[in-house]
């Protein structure tokens, strides 16, 4: 890996490089995605089935679009029992963590008869997109579905692309059943997002769509936002390791590569105050890369978006961490908990040498659907609140309103909204 001295200039250049990976820069695909969405919106099943035939080489129809109970049972039978048990254990950890996020509606009553509060209500219907083929990730399915179940969403439907034989990845089906998906539809790509956003003869319209996907899925979610809610428009995966001389270079190198293997646009960055650590990590990166199955992808990722940055001080390193706002941040320092208190921007923070990033991807419980491309400055991980609506509650007695009516009327009149003012005024004439 290239080793650079951390400066204002290198920080600026790296940030510019990272931002180029944002889905907001994929404009050349927007026209194609727009045509797909318009087609499904106007023609419903007809367009959905045609696009599935075109892109997935499967003759979809109203009879085979839904996964059957028999297909789910066959999926269980084809899987290793230990894998099924592992999925179940992961699901329980995710459920336990997200259950702690639940909040109760609240009301504040005052002596003058006014009542103010917030009513929490789950959304009625959620759609979860799950990639298929080589990019089939049962772990992401769990991370999307379980918070929705904990929130109390009335119905959860799932879309995942079928193979040319019409089958869906067995681990995906088992995870969907364990997580509690109500209906699974064999459909993928932008056409699946459009079907869930607008509804077709076979697919119900949902209120919110979550889940990762390729460029076409990301742009489709962006296009339907406003017709339905979405979680986020995810960019390529990222890891940033903040380390000092106490870190184990072998662990650091292994953790950097855990994200570089996702795809050629993935980013892996080490920021350290130790040149010796930097050089040892670079050596271990080369050693591991030569041994790994996805070494070609890893090498391209590192060549494009891999960096080892040498900082003059830990404060400079922390400032850069906050500016990059990485999806995953590992802190491997002598006192990681102290350093953590200085971090403002990160999707998820992993503390200490035994909190490797894959622990969060699969097992620990916190959500791994995280903000990318610097959006951790203003976005949060997927959570129970993403599937809950908050409704304000307001009730005033005559006594309470009488004390405030002149202020309200004056404010409304200052904005030229005389009907607003009159709505209050008539109650005291």
Explain the overall architecture.
By secondary structure, this protein is of the alpha/beta class. Helices cover 46% and strands 16% of the residues. It is built from 17 helices and 14 strands. The protein has a 6-stranded parallel β-sheet, with helices on both faces. The protein has a 5-stranded parallel β-sheet with strand order 6-5-4-7-8, with helices on both faces. Strands 2-3-14 form a 3-stranded antiparallel β-sheet, with no helix packed on it. Helix 14 links the parallel strand 12 and strand 13. Helix 2 crosses helix 3. It is globular and about 85 Å long. The mean pLDDT is 93.
What share of residues is helical?
40-55%
Number of strands: 14
Strand order in the largest sheet:
1-11-10-9-12-13
Mean pLDDT: 93
Shape: globular
Please, how many helices? 17
Query: Spans with pLDDT under 50 lasting ≥5 residues?
Result: none
Strand content: 15-25%
N-C termini distance: 77 Å
Cα-based radius of gyration, to the nearest Å: 25 Å
**Most strands sheet:** 6 strands, parallel
Helix/strand structural class: alpha/beta
Key features of this structure:
429 residues, alpha/beta, 14 strands, 16% strand, globular
Question: Which SSEs are present, and which pair or pack?
Answer:
Layout: E1 3-5, H1 8-19, H2 30-43, H3 45-56, H4 69-78, H5 81-99, E2 106-109, E3 115-122, E4 125-129, H6 138-151, E5 155-160, H7 170-179, E6 183-186, H8 189-198, E7 208-210, H9 215-224, E8 229-230, E9 238-243, H10 249-260, E10 267-272, H11 275-291, H12 295-305, E11 306-310, H13 314-324, E12 328-332, H14 336-340, E13 348-351, H15 357-362, E14 388-395, H16 398-414, H17 418-425
């Amino acid at each position: 890996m290239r080793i650079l001295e951390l400066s204002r200039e290198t920080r600026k250049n790296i940030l510019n490089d990272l931002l180029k990976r944002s889905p907001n820069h994929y404009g050349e695909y927007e026209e194609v995605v727009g045509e797909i969405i318009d087609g499904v919106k106007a023609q419903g099943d007809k367009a959905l089935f045609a696009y599935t035939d075109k892109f997935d080489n499967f003759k979809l129809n109203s009879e085979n679009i839904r996964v059957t109970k028999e297909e789910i049972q066959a999926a269980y039978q084809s899987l290793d029992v230990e894998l099924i048990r592992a999925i179940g254990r992961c699901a329980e950890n995710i459920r336990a963590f997200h259950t702690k996020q639940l909040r109760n509606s609240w009301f504040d009553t005052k002596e003058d008869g006014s009542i103010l509060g917030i009513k929490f209500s789950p959304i009625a219907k959620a759609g979860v997109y799950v990639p298929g083929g080589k990019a089939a990730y049962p772990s992401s399915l769990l991370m999307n579905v379980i918070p929705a179940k904990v929130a109390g969403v009335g119905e959860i439907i799932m879309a995942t692309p079928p193979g040319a034989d019409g089958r869906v990845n067995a681990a995906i089906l088992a995870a969907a059943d364990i997580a509690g998906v109500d209906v699974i539809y064999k459909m993928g790509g932008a056409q699946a997002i459009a079907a869930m956003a607008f509804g077709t003869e076979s697919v119900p319209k949902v209120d919110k769509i979550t889940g990762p996907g390729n460029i076409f899925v990301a742009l489709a979610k962006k296009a339907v936002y406003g017709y339905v809610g979405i979680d986020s428009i995810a960019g390529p995966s990222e890891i940033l390791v903040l380390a000092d001389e106490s870190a184990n270079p072998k662990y650091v190198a292994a953790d950097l590569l855990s994200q570089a293997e996702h795809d050629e646009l993935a980013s892996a960055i080490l920021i350290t105050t130790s040149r010796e650590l930097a050089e040892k990590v670079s050596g271990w990166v080369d050693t591991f890369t030569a041994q790994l199955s996805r070494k070609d992808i890893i090498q391209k990722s590192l060549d494009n978006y891999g960096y080892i940055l040498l900082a003059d001080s830990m404060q400079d390193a922390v400032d850069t961490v906050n500016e990059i706002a990485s999806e995953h941040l590992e802190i491997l320092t002598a006192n990681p908990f102290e350093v953590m208190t200085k971090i403002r921007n990160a999707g998820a923070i992993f503390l200490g040498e035994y909190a490797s990033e894959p622990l969060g991807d699969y097992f620990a419980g916190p959500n791994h659907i995280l903000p990318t491309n610097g959006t951790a400055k203003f976005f949060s991980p997927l959570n129970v609140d993403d599937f809950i609506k908050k409704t304000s509650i307001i009730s005033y007695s005559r006594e309470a309103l009488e004390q405030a009516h002149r202020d309200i009327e004056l404010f409304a009149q200052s904005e030229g909204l005389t009907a607003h003012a009159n709505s209050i005024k008539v109650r005291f004439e």
